[in-house]
Amino acid sequence: MGKLGFVSLFRKKKIESPSADHNSLARVIGMPSLIFFGVGGIVGTGLFSITGIAASEHAGPAVILSFFIGAIACAFIGLCYSELAGMITVSGSSYSYTYIAYGEIIAWMVGWNLVLEYAVGAGAVAVSWSKYMLSLLEGFGIHPDQRYIASPFETIKLADGTVTHGIINLPSMVIVIILSFVLMKGIRESLTLNNIVVFIKIFVVIALIAFGLPYIHASNFVPFIPENVENQFGHFGYSGILQAAGMVIFAYIGFDSVSSTAQEVKDPAKNIPKAILIIIATCAIIYVLFAFVIVGLVYYKDLVGDAAPVATAINHTPYVWLQPVVKFSILFGYIPILFLLLIGQTRVFYSLARDGLIPTFFSKTHPKYKTPCYSHIFFMIMICFLCAFLPMDILGNMCSIGALFAFVFVCSGVIILRRTYKDYPRTFKAPGGDIIPAIGVITSLVLMYSLNGLTWTMMSIWLTIGLIIYFSYGYWHSKLNKKLENI
């Protein structure tokens, strides 16, 4: 196996044609499906649950600015993804990019954090889905035992007034299991369902904005930036806007997953960069408008602890009868988000296994459906555990910091690859020289800094576990390592 050497930790892959991968995936995703796929994955959880929490606990009405800041940050980051996706058209997204730009150890850390991002992100979406399902059922007079729709860390109030803790979130597990098996049958069937659901969801969101605008109250925007009277970072004031921006990054996560499907996209070098920019622009407009309507209809202090701010906002209009329709639409709207996260994480695991950093068992595809079924099964079990026993706030913040960690290396990787692959053909190049990638790095680091200490501690533990796995298995079984030893 050889000896562990510092230099070998940074061994790099070269840019190769995806056809070089003997186990390549079927190319079935066209441009329209790719855009619907991305928009459907982004618009959802943040819009339907994070908005109220970010406004009531951090930014007040200025949560509008937080969404705007998040959109600008993602635009710079998206331009970097577009450039790299146009020159590196293999599965793995951030992982593949950093393997070529930085080397194996950094690529492993980024890939390991992508696993975190997608897994806890899917868990958070599943938890939020279960809360809207509970709200919908209660609207029809059905009151299930909330102990089985909440994690042990959540305090709940039962129908008889008893205050207790949850036991397990069963509905979130059920939706993860169902969608995982759908994906195992093949991405074509999944995208057909996704396109239908996304069309309905975007239509409903636009309708809600249109119906809500006439009923907003100017008084709800005063004060626009509530004073940080406790002098506590992130609790209103300008620091609150910043912390809310870091929080709502979770709401924008999804555009980076688009590039992880490169081996299944038709003409990826052309379609992925265009799709990423269109997706970010579309979602940014929707988010800013929606946040404006929510805080315009409901005074921000009335959104404290509100897991369903959309339903609350409708109560402040003459359209209260729309509540069940909206909740039902939101439940369906969460489906493509889960699809996006489930697909993204299995593709990253597929790439890690293909490179020998985890057992090659995970790189095997189903003989009939050509999908990474073993990775799907592994993550189905992992996500079920997460969504069953952890609350949404912990999952959401972990997802954000995992994504931002990857964004830092992707943006800086653009600067490196412009020098190491100076003459390599690119279908798209971010304008302004190195300014845009540098801004992407800075904004990602600032938003990471804004997240709380618990989130940083949990990420540190996750990275430590990842490094243990790498040095005990990945380093020694790396296919690139074996290739270099044979030279």
From TrEMBL:
Q: Name one Pfam family in it.
A: AA_permease_2
Protein's membrane topology: Multi-pass membrane protein
The record's GO molecular-function terms, alphabetically, read: amino acid transmembrane transporter activity
Q: Where are the transmembrane segments?
A: 34-56, 62-84, 105-129, 166-184, 196-216, 236-255, 276-300, 320-344, 373-392, 398-418, 430-450, 456-476
Does the keyword section mention Secreted? no
Q: Note whether tRNA processing occurs among the keywords.
A: no
Q: What is this protein called?
A: Amino acid permease-associated protein
Species annotation? Commensalibacter papalotli
Classification from the root reads:
Bacteria, Pseudomonadati, Pseudomonadota, Alphaproteobacteria, Acetobacterales
